[in-house]
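Page header: ASSEMBLY MODEL / two components / 936 residues total.
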Amino acid sequence: MAQSLEGLDTFPKLLVHHARVRGDRPAVREKDLGIWQTWSWKDYADEARALACGLAAAGFVRGEHLAIVGDNRPRLYAAMAAAQCLGGIPVPLYQDAVAAEFAFPIHNAGIRFAVVEDQEQVDKLLEIRPRCPTLERIWYDDPRGMRHYAEPGLAPYDTLLAEGRAALARDPAFVETEIAKGSGEDAAAMFFTSGTTGNPKGVVLTHRALIDRARAGAALERLSDSDSVLAYLPPAWIGQNIFSYAQSLVAGYCICCPESAETVMADMREIGPTYYFAPPRVLEALLTQVSIRMEDAGRLKRAMYRYFMALAQRVGGAILDGRPVPLASRLLYALGDLLVYGPLRNVLGMSRVRVAYTAGEAIGPDLFRFYRSIGINLKQLYGSTETSVFVCVQPDGQVKPDTVGPPVEGVELKFTAERELLVRSPGLFREYYKNPQATLEAKDADGWFHTGDAGYLDADGHLKIIDRVKDVGRLADGTLFAPKYLENKLKFFPYIKEAVCFGHGRDRVCAFINIDMEAVGNWAERRGLAYSGYVDLASRPEVYDLVAGCVERVNADLAAEPELANSQIHRFLVLHKELDADDEELTRTRKVRRRFIAEKYAPLVEALYGGEASVHVEAKVRYEDGRTATIAADLKIRDVKTFAPAAAARAA
Amino acid sequence: MKTEAALATPGVLGAQAATQARRIGEPILVVENVSLAFGGVKALQDVSFDVREREIRAIIGPNGAGKSSMLNVLNGVYHPQAGTIRLRTGQTAWREFHDMDPHEAAALGIARTFQNIALFKGMTVLDNIMTGRNLKMRASFLEQALWIGRARREELEHRRAVEEIIDFLEIQHIRKTPVGRLPYGLQKRVELARALAAEPRILLLDEPMAGMNLEEKQDMCRFVLDVNDHYGTTIVLIEHDMGVVMDISDRVVVLDYGRKIADGTPDEVRRDRAVIDAYLGVPQ
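Prediction written out in full:
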């Protein structure tokens, strides 16, 4: 198999290969009008070929960029392949970004053509068009609501496809020649990194880099054309692109596109993917849902759930890892599998999952163990856009919750004096587009990529990431302060959705907390606690008590770790609004932008350290349609009990 | 060079847009001197107005003004004691009637939703919408029972039509959910879906936004406008929310105590003295 893939050094060549050797196997599925519609590999390749001819007829040339904006849609994937057939470079953009965020990438790459999903995306592109004069043509997949648009250069995808089919019929050899011209060293795609400061950077990845890493990952997990994956995360994110485009083209497995964002859970149950990816927050949301539904269950079911989950916590992980477990526990676990774990996996749509990855940020150890204990082979993965994802993966049987596993084949790691992780691998990016200075800063002359993450290799050679190098700080007395580590500990509680810790250069650690509306709302309902909305709920003294309890437990935990005992959280406040990517408080991949938040809410931070009992705040919020409004509130600040390192053993 | 040419001539879509641009046509429904009384209560007195093809026509008025009665007359639930209703059935063909029954109205292409939702609570969203196709089913009882002949073909056809409406109104995620378990705003949307399933020429909406929160109202407005735009359906709606009415309707009829007191575009109606008096009271 590996032999026959030699020489297939670009994605279009792989696509043509699959169309030849497994032409009738499913390549892409999409639920449309309530039915799963399937494209075979042959259909997929035909669609891409025709589209490529259409693009060429419209004037798309080798080396040119094609913007792709939308959710996971088979036709958008075909558009990606079509651009690559012509030696072009697809640039997927986040579909939930506001219009202004599109301006930079389009301007930066001088993009002339865009293939988008629907009216929403067309509107956004038209809005920024005056600022992006290069943008000539926009094709849209879904014609709904588009009939009165008369802007020049706007046409439905079907028109492009029809023109392409006509061109293909006239000159069938054209596209094959174009595909043959492609080389592994060509740029395959460009991803704009969310960038916590300044403009985003366009990460240029070659076919060789993406294919090499996709193959390394596929070999490690023995992926084949009998696997399938549900494509439900933004295609502009490298992870989604690897799992639902690059690896699918390497291993020949089928990708399935859900009907809509709201139906993902139901669609996942119907499809039963074997290969699954979820960032920790999705796993967390699923667990929260399960917990809430279990609280609503009858007494017998609750007791059963509690009993078997406790058993799973003890032996589930060991059984999955193939470590020795007493026979009695094994038998009980088998019973639990029949009564609880199996049905639970089924509800989660994970009955058939063989390999599940989580990455993007650190995952709470208890959350991680939960999935593994019920028999889902969830593993951590480390990588970034610049490394084509696969740097470290936990191999089956060697899964430790606090590390991300050993380096994948082909990857070299080393550390600077500041503990910054450097990576060298065949999957590294070529450059930041039109930004040689940033490229030089990130990738040195010897080809080492500076990840910006701080970490170390443990005794087994597994990588452990603590935090971003620039975020690892020191308290005034010199003790280590790793904000993300604390935030992750807080966020493990279902009631806390987001946390932001401050402490660098200060005498103690304080925190902002975002409550989880669903979990806390449910908790309040159970107690007959009336509230009018998010702001009201967040300011309730009962909710403060609840959160204080969580913070206290984190402090107790920290007291047990000598290095971190001093970074216990002394004071906190509950924010009056959810941190939101639209307000630039989170990145599009939903990581908190600590510095931005510290600046934006500077008076709140000062109040935390100033010792006041409450603080008045007015905040500007931006709605999804771009309008802004102001919310005013009085936020209470609460002191929390901290533990002396010696007392910790008893308290914990 | 090629792209320049492409820019100069509108694409297929451009041409389509030019021919299908929403234009309000000739009257399709004419109400003339309709009066309706329940015993001594005069619900409607001598009301006349028309509804043009593809327009959104609102009927407003204070409580008890006769709005719902008017809608009930239009789809044959009430039979007026005087006056006529004429419905255009072809290019020039008109059908005049005094006492039409609701079944007949539905067959003529008039569908409606109700002020207090009238769905089958125990049935799924999908099944509820399917009932909207009822009039279009031709298969006999026996064929349906045995799932043979026309029944099978028809069911596939109807399911497709229903799925398109589900897609259109963005309710895929609740397709298999029993209606009784849905929040109010979604039930309203399902009711709209069922009315649409009949592929009506005229859609009567009785307070489609009543009891909704702001977000639900915005959604519903968008869907009403989309239905009107996409299917070219003529819409007659009753609504209390003035903002909604003024925003989405083309013309407004104002009723007060069963009489028509104003008729015109939202702007005209908003400035009308009689309307202001009816809503705010007359100064002593």
